[in-house]
Each structure stands twice: as structure tokens, then as C-alpha cells.
Amino acid sequence: MPRYCFTLQVRPDRMDEYVERHRAVWPEMLDALAETGWRNYSLFLRDDGLLVGYVESDDLTAAQAAMARTEVNARWQAEMAPFFTGINGGAPDQGFVVLREVFNLDQQRHESN
């Protein structure tokens, strides 16, 4: 299963509210993510607002496109956009920076056996 890690920057003055919003993500949003191929999805927030996301998906681009076609995602992204810097008015799920994976323990252990 391909793994993806990405970053975004949460506005420092909105971090508490951002965390609170994610304590009770709308059930229809959770369902849409699962139905469009987002698996083992987690978000981590550093004290300075750096948000690091991790997700597994057969194809992240296809999963993003499938989410973009859902009404619930349009509502969620519109509500979440003001929490971020550096996305130039776009949707957060289209403005994140995907990081290149440089090491995976399980993969290297498997390849060495």
C-alpha cells in the first residue's frame, strides 16, 4: 500500500479551534474519506502550527479527485481553508505539499531478507 506524508501550516491563532474541529469530524466526511480510498489517515500538529498528515492510498491523486467530487468535501474544505496559510485561497486538500519518502523500516528489512 503506497504511503503519503504531507504538510500544511495552520495559523497559530486558529490552532486550538482546528484541533477542536477534528475531535468530531462530520460522520459523512469520515464515510466519504473511507469510500474514496483514504486509509490509515492521521494528522499531527506541531506547536508552531506545522501540520503533518499521513495517509495510505492505492493512488492519492485518484483519492483526492474522488473526494473533490463529493458535496461534503466541498463544505469541509470551505470551512477549513481559513485555518491555513500558504494555500492561496484554495482547498487545503489540494494545497498540501507531499513529502518524498526516504526510509521505511519494514521495506528495508524485507528487501534485506
CATH class: Alpha Beta
**Helix percentage:** 40-55%
The CATH topology assignment is Alpha-Beta Plaits
Specify the overall morphology: globular
- Number of DSSP E strands: 5
Unreliable spans: none
CATH architecture: 2-Layer Sandwich
Gyration radius (Cα, Å) is 15 Å
Q: What proportion of the residues form beta strands (DSSP E)?
A: 15-25%
SSE-based structural type: alpha+beta
Separation of termini? Answer: 20 Å
Return the string of H and E elements.
EHHEEHHEHEH
The profile of the biggest β sheet is:
5 strands, antiparallel
How many independent structural domains? 1
Enumerate how many helices there are, as a single number. Answer: 6
What's the mean pLDDT score? 94
